[in-house]
Amino acid sequence: MKTGKAELVCTGSELLGGKLNLYVPPFHERLAPLGFTITREQSCGDSLPVIRDALAGALKRADLVIACGGLGPTFDDLTRQAAAAALGRRLYHSKSCAQILSFNFKLKKLPPNLTDQCLLLEGAKPLENTNGTAFGQVLTRGRKMLVLLPGPRKEWEPMFPNFLDAELKSFFGLPPLAQVKLRAAGLWETQAEKLLRPVMRRFPLAAYTILAGPGTVDFILSGDDGKGMIGRAAAAAGKALGAALYGEGEATLAGAAGAKLKALGRTLAAAESCTGGLAAKLITDVPGSSAYFLGGAVAYSDRAKKKLLGVKPGTLKQNGAVSAGCAREMAAGARKVFGSDYAFSVTGIAGPDGGTAEKPAGLVFFGLAGPRGASVFRRRFRGGRSFVRDCAANFILDELRKIIK
Amino acid sequence: MKTGKAELVCTGSELLGGKLNLYVPPFHERLAPLGFTITREQSCGDSLPVIRDALAGALKRADLVIACGGLGPTFDDLTRQAAAAALGRRLYHSKSCAQILSFNFKLKKLPPNLTDQCLLLEGAKPLENTNGTAFGQVLTRGRKMLVLLPGPRKEWEPMFPNFLDAELKSFFGLPPLAQVKLRAAGLWETQAEKLLRPVMRRFPLAAYTILAGPGTVDFILSGDDGKGMIGRAAAAAGKALGAALYGEGEATLAGAAGAKLKALGRTLAAAESCTGGLAAKLITDVPGSSAYFLGGAVAYSDRAKKKLLGVKPGTLKQNGAVSAGCAREMAAGARKVFGSDYAFSVTGIAGPDGGTAEKPAGLVFFGLAGPRGASVFRRRFRGGRSFVRDCAANFILDELRKIIK
Predict the structure, then answer these.
(1) Minimal Cα–Cα distance from B225 to chain A, Å?
(2) Which of A172, A205, A234 is the endpoint of a domain?
(3) Chains A & B: contacts with CB separation below 8 Å
(4) Are residues B190 and B167 part of one domain?
(5) At what angle do helices B302-309 and B324-338 cross, to 10 degrees?
(6) What mean pLDDT do residues A19-26 have?
(7) For B354, which residue in chain A has the nearest alpha carbon?
(8) Do residue A260 and residue A394 come from a single domain?
(9) How many domains does chain A have?
(10) Of residues A219 and B260, which shows the higher confidence score?
(11) What range defines the domain where residue B125 resides?
């Protein structure tokens, strides 16, 4: 099958100085449906010769080169100049770009830093930026294409549906690489691999990746979908994962639970101690969650547990806040005070401090209350504070998703 | 100043197919104290010619080249072969490596996949792996060094204190690089640049990076600290940033506010609507936050605003939930119900839906109540749902930090 070779050149000294490079996965997701495999990624500091050299190398090897970052208005934004040097083309000041910026910002005269953003590579098409001032640029040379994109994801990502998808399709005309991401929770990576191994053997033409998260496992199938193979393999994998499967693609646990609540016209409330608002944050990350999420109590102190959620003083005294009894009363209290159909609770020791031999860091109790009764869970997560909190939030959202009926 | 140039070559098709590359920040942390700047990073799929080409390019440019990943026992582990091809050296079977593995695994005869792990580059020193079976390798050629490391962090990281720190110090003998990250909030990237430009002119020897976040700006200074230059430049930059500066290094807005609360023995509560638990989550990300954070109410529904926080029905009826009056009553209510010294509130329209001409998506009201009175803020953030929520949470944490006295 015909696959396009794409290379990424990511610029920014921060990418080599302590900040995670978050570019590659979303570019992979954007480019695979357009028929491209990313064959190499280079991260460069804010140095003109380094970026120029990286672009020149990539242009020799790949069909499509995407440079991201370095189009901003400050001194360390050098990608335009580096691309001009790599291609041996000059930069010119685009009047139409200047007019667009003048119009958008209601300015008669552009300040110098905005004027710089109107520099285009000779022969390049500008891409409008709906969330910022830096234009993207597309330039073709022979059978190759160079694309310059601004760094922030909210600036470059809309350029795909708005311009680049059509541009790349018409210039390269590649068959899409199909990709399905199955999302599962409540099992370990090794358990998932065991369940999925027969599927991988049965459909050997696809490429497979298993990615573990905090209490979650993603299974990614990719390849040419000429004969519907990816779809059949995904169906078999979904069957193998069973109830652990909560969605596909960008589905989230909170979204899966929310969709069930919405479909049934049911409502939800949360009572959190050690997750401290994280579970509510994940629920409200979902647009439209106000249709079913009534609210939550972050009951960090004992007083808040008693006053907001009606936890009995005796329960706290006898069993402590990290206990099955407290979790049960927190969930029941949240259901009552918010007047919701379902409510859950999380109370535990996120760590690193606060653990004892009897109740170590990572120990978490959960309550779940619904129209058909209540249940309590106890789990021990091993890892740092944020890992324990992520695992705890994912665990209860997964249990919630499973009981909503 | 003398700085070593290091390049990383990260291997693994998953790094180009959806998985985040987590290698670079920890390598930066390991290499900066040894005097190295990472000048380029390349991610390559599991392809022998691609890895060979990436290594050959890196060896031409850099003093130190570190290849990570691809030393495992499976068919797609190709780094040893690629390094041999890039250097024009052969691989040989090391008897001492085989003895170490035989001893560690109590095996008389090694299986073929473990035998492959005993292949060393001609002239290379093996690095023992205390958490796995793949040996690291160090090879010098002239004034350059190539290091091959296994992919999992728990396998390669101990090789630094155990072997590599000493090896790199004795071979290169470079002075350590200093780096200071100043963190500021409540100003734009371009405002920060204007404030900082005189500092950058005054101390031209350091390298500077400005990074914008949602309502935040980081300013990173790095270079040789031989004459205390980085420290003096950082002090000048901090002065230029003034009250916008909230910390250094890994400081967070929530941590900065928390430290002030802790020092004064004051307590805090939160009342959130559109941020849906995000602000409480950021506060409780800080270990030990239970010392001052009593809790929060995620009051998504009107009922919750009234019942948990005592917002007056008339306020909601006349002004709606997204209003200065509601924000004021939410903050006052949270302060009362949690019994805290300080409380803040956030109520707005995170979007993408729910906006009107009068109250567009991104409009947020904030309340802040403390021992010395209360205040209300109104802001409009432009961007997607998560950007609006991040900006809103950062805005109120920054205002909180500033008023605590």
Answers:
(1) 17
(2) A172
(3) 260
(4) no
(5) 40
(6) 90
(7) A288
(8) yes
(9) 3
(10) B260
(11) 4-172
